[in-house]
User: Which sequence fits this backbone?
């Protein structure tokens, strides 16, 4: 008989982890979700920063989120504001930027602030999964 361990009590032990994807483009969210689910991740989606902040503060999500992938240019609450919020409120959650508008100065600034990666759309599925795997390692180190 195999032992069952709930994600609720033990973190992401039954899968590879939970990722929140924040992007205002439904096609991008779908492609990212499909690439990550294929690798065994549980994926939550939000269409903007406002929805992401609401999602993380709902129920048990704040306890179960392992990493976030966030676009920069979005309506309502921008990616920059969303990332700032997550860094203040949930500093243990590693963050990844995924943007169609690369900016070297912004990338350097984000990396200095501790982001795991700064990816440019379109991103190869393997590169995306590698960035998420690095984020998960960072998250596990934070739990130790």
Assistant:
């Amino acid at each position: 008989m195999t032992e069952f361990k709930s994600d609720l009590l033990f973190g992401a032990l039954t899968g590879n982890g939970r990722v929140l994807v924040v992007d205002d483009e439904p096609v991008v969210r779908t492609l990212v979700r499909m690439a990550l689910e294929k690798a065994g991740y549980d994926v939550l989606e939000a269409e903007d920063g406002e929805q992401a902040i609401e999602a993380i503060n709902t129920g048990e999500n704040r306890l179960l989120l392992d990493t976030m992938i966030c676009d920069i240019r979005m309506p309502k609450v921008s990616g920059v504001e969303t990332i700032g919020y997550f860094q203040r409120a949930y500093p243990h959650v590693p963050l990844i930027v995924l943007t169609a508008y690369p900016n070297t100065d912004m990338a350097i600034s984000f990396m200095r602030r501790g982001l795991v990666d700064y990816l440019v759309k379109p991103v190869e599925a393997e590169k995306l999964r590698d960035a998420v795997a690095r984020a998960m390692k960072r998250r596990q180190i934070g739990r130790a």
Residues 68 and 95 are 5 Å apart (CA to CA). Strands lie at 18-22, 42-46, 67-70, 95-99, 117-120. Residues 1-14 have pLDDT under 50 and may be disordered. The two ends are 29 Å apart (CA to CA).
